[in-house]
Amino acid sequence: MFKVITARLHPPKPSSLRLDGLTVLLVGASTGIGLEAAKKLATKGPAKLIVTARDASKASKTKALIEEHLSATSTPQSSIPTIIPLVVELTSPKSMYAFARDLAQATDHLDHAILSAGILLGSYSQVSETGYETSLQVNAISPMLMSLLIMPLLLASPRVHNESVADRPHLTIVSSGGAWLVKKSSLSPYVDFDHPLRELSKKENFPPGMMGGQWHYSRTKLMCEYGKRHLAMLPSLNDAKGQPKVLVASVCPGAVNSELSRHSANSGVLGAMARVVNGTVARTPEQGANIYISSLNLGVEGRGEMWTDDAISKDARPFIASDELKRLGDNVWGEVKEFAAKVDEMHGSGVVKRLLA
Predict the structure, then answer these.
(1) How confident is the model at residue 254 (pLDDT cuts 50, 70, 90)?
(2) Strand, coil or helix: what is 106?
(3) How many domains is the chain partitioned into structurally?
(4) Are 173 and 232 in contact (CB under 8 A)?
(5) CA 268, CA 276: separation in Å to the nearest integer?
(6) DSSP label at residue 250
(7) Residue 12 in domain
(8) What's 241's domain CATH number?
(9) 339 falls within a domain
(10) For the segment 116-127, what is each residue's pLDDT rounded down to a tens digit?
């Protein structure tokens, strides 16, 4: 709570990182921190900046807003990137595979990628296409599937051959320090399930009370953290020395006045609390976006870790130290792999299966 109250006093520092000539993807760029991050990325000299929104109208508007920002900041014409707007809906594997095909048409490689989309719901909701609870799908499962779908393009970057891991491709998954607020005792009922995400998606397991949506949001981010740690260590990402050709990490921008809780903004107490925090102690989206940019320069020490407040978080340790919670993390990853393999059979061409082999 202290971190939330003092968030505005110690925002992430702006990054001096340059991206000259690179191809960068930002998923979830139409509002809030994602939009501010897209604006920052565009001023750093990339050759291509690929941005996404949930529909074509929002994607086109996002491109226009970035172009307006470039004009307002007098960015030299030689440094202005080609901005490519694409569409993806993260509740739909079908949409994600269509996006992957569009992305492959737009570029033959990615040098960096940031997955920024997220959602906080005030009440229970289910995705009809997958059967998973909506926020669990968007915050935990879909980021893992999206990571696998774009990984071949990251591995195709010429930067995978750079000596320093800090200079290699990065995949940044936007998470939340709220993951570490989950009571470890509340996870015990799910430890021995082979499909813990299915159990967490049951309506009867949605946390009750006025803060139920917030507590569930924290759980979804913890599940994302479990998946990310396994994803980062995939053998298929290693070079001959066992170093990552693609550095996978997560970031937490801290408490930010964004549209994350837009779906619960009118849901009684939770919405009222979100409005109070946003209007008083939260960081600005522009401040929160700094952590996205600086994550693209992490070295091997950041592999599988969370980058927050310009440092690697130590808060994950209690959630991976015990045999019980390690087993939960393993089961979460097992279910993610099973889900990804299943949808890849329906919509894909075997790329996911090869990465997971």
Answers:
(1) confident
(2) helix
(3) 1
(4) no
(5) 13
(6) E
(7) no
(8) 3.40.50.720
(9) yes
(10) 989 999 899 999
